[in-house]
Amino acid sequence: MLAGHQAIAGIARRVAENARDGNIQRRRERYLLPSVAALVGSAWLISRYGGYTPGSGAGYYLGLAGGIALLIVFLYPLRKRLRFMRNWGATKGWFSLHMACGIGGPFLILSHSTFHVGSINAGVALASMLLVAGSGIIGRFIYIRIHHGLYGTRASLGQLQAEVGLSAGAVRSQLHFAPRVEQWLKAFEAVALERPKNVVHGLWRFLMLGTRARWTHERCTREFARIYRSRARASRWDAARQRHDLAVARELIGAFLTGAQRVAQFSRYERLFSLWHVLHVPLVWMLLLSAIAHVVAVHAY
Question: Do 26 and 144 touch, CB atoms closer than 8 A?
Answer without folding.
Answer: yes
